[in-house]
Amino acid sequence: MTSDEDATAGRAQEMARSSRDHSDVRDRLERWLAGRLPEGAEPRITGLEATSATGMSNETLLLSACWQERGEPRQERLVARLAPDQRDVPVFPSYDLERQFEVIRLVGELSDVPVPRVWWSEPNPGPIGTPFFLMGHVDGRVPPDVMPYTFGDNWLHDADEADQRCLQDATVSVLARLHAVDGAEERFAFLRPDAPGDTPLRRRVATARAWYDFAAADGFASPLVEQGFAWLDAHWPATEGETVLSWGDARIGNVLYHGFTPAAVLDWEMATLGPRELDLGWLIYAHCIFNDIAGAFGLPGMPGFMRAEDVAAGYEALTGHRLGDLAFYGTLAALQYGIVFLRTGARSVHFGELEPPDQVDDLLHNREGLERMLAGEYWT
Length: 380
Known about the structure:
Elements: H1 3-13, H2 22-36, E1 44-50, E2 59-69, E3 72-82, H3 97-110, E4 118-122, E5 132-136, H4 161-179, H5 184-187, H6 200-216, H7 223-234, E6 243-246, E7 255-258, E8 261-265, E9 272-275, H8 277-296, H9 308-319, H10 326-350, H11 367-374
Antiparallel strand pairs: 1-2, 2-3, 3-5, 4-5, 6-9, 7-8
């Protein structure tokens, strides 16, 4: 990298995520736990730290807690997911943490997809200033986002091809097992998007459009993202297929791995009901974008990993389901990544880390790839 690129990478690594006082959150959480546990439990939070290992949609805190249970000391490592402070330019327009809590609980009950144990959900912002829920801590490792794992010098990039393929196949298996949950439309009816449209896919895209309208406010309208929505309308799949439970943010950066096997599937805020291809297109593109970024820095990336044809073949072998137009679903994923970049760019401007750009589309880290998709040149 050049010195300018090093500086840019450093800024990305240090990007501000929250303006909360964590010592205050710790004290208030301790008082809240005392009200949740039986009398005499005398809970204490002995450690609290933020983590930047995952995305920026929720604030994640790692806790060490201890209390008395039936006269014996008990210690637990917990993870708190907090709705972001509206002053911190959140990625999404709203956060329903109770819904996320319920999705994780039901996935744990109805499938063998590995998820953390959920403990408590608190929808009332009063106790600590925002809604939150607590889940169990799971040991594991995550392919890094910063710097992207495709840049090299990390456990996944440096693994041999057999282990990389093991991780790929095991992650595809997670999607196959998730999509096999019986009666998803009834059991997860609360995930039905509250958006216009006569099919699950129409409603999902309408939800993304409303998300973009939120992100575009205050001077962040993107001509390229708007072109993308027009492209989707013009290239709509002839058939949408079966409706399943969709993880929504299906990428390896949202999985904790033991070795090369998933130990816990995380980040369910985008869970929805829709075609299988929503998750498969997202999984494929979530790797493509990191490969594209690596290429922009002159790095070889990982071109043999998470190839669309390999992911599709693996999924079809597990499920017997032949996937539809993955170019459409990959482009939908890229468009939603663009919306995320609008919000994270606005956040960087808010925290003084970035000057407002002359062209809003310059905030889109996937601009070149998205332009090629709309020109019909990317997925070929």
